[in-house]
Each structure stands twice: as C-alpha cells, then as structure tokens.
Amino acid sequence: QGELVESGGGLVQAGGSLNLSCAASRNIFSLNAMGWYRQAPGKQRELVAFITTSSSTNYLDAVKGRFTISRDNAKNTVLLQMSSLKPEDTAVYYCCAGPTFLKKFLPNYWGQGTQVTVSS
C-alpha cells in the first residue's frame, strides 16, 4: 500500500457534491503540507488546493468558494470537500504531500489518483 491513499471519487451530477479523503503515514502528514492536484484528459495537471501544517490554505481560482480543503491531525488525513460541481471538474484527482517554499507547494509524495466524473 502506498504512503498516500485516496478515497471518495465517483460519479455525480452537475451541482452535486463529493468528498475526497487521503490518508497519509504519520511522518509524511506531520511534516508536510498536503494538497490535491487534478488532471483532465488532454490537459496538464493543475494544483487544486493545498493546506500547510499550520492549516493555511490556498485554492485554484476556478474552485474558490466551491471546494474546501482541511486536515485532520488526529487521523493523518486530508479532506477535499467539493460542492456545486461542474462538468469541467471532471478529472483524476491526486493527493500529494511536500514542503512549501515562498508560498509555493512542492509535492514529492503522490497518491495513485481517484476519478471524479461530473455529468451535465
């Protein structure tokens, strides 16, 4: 089993909600910022959101106000709550972990990815 394990992807209608969860090993979780990237077919991977060890958050403009990232320090888990989903949110979502430098997230651990499909 990998060091980052995602769950919660699936199929949802536009306007609906989905929650993604990512469980990490204690060492990785406690020392690193956690985040989510996504990659849609034919597109480059893009950073959706990340949260630092002090729980500062950063979001892709396209998801601001619709997605919320949080971390559960007791469970070594990061959660991405997605609401008001749009077909353009369809992608494989990857959990990741790594340091930040000058407010930039630099992941060096990656999960296997989980598919999110939003139907119109």
Note down, in words, how this protein is organized.
- 5% of the residues lie in helices and 52% in strands.
- With 120 residues, it is mainly beta.
Helix and strand arrangement:
Layout: E1 4-7, E2 10-13, E3 18-24, H1 26-31, E4 33-39, E5 46-51, E6 57-59, E7 67-72, E8 77-82, E9 91-98, E10 100-101, E11 104-105, E12 109-110, E13 114-119
Parallel strand pairs: 2-13
Antiparallel strand pairs: 1-3, 3-8, 4-5, 4-9, 5-6, 7-8, 9-12, 9-13, 10-11
What spatial form do the alpha-carbon principal axes imply? globular
In angstroms, what is the radius of gyration?
Answer: 13 Å
Q: Helix count, per DSSP?
A: 1
The share of residues in extended strands comes to: over 45%
Question: What can be said about this structure in brief?
Answer:
With 120 residues, the protein is mainly beta.
Note the main attributes of this structure:
mainly beta, seven-stranded mixed beta sheet, 1 helix, globular, 120 residues
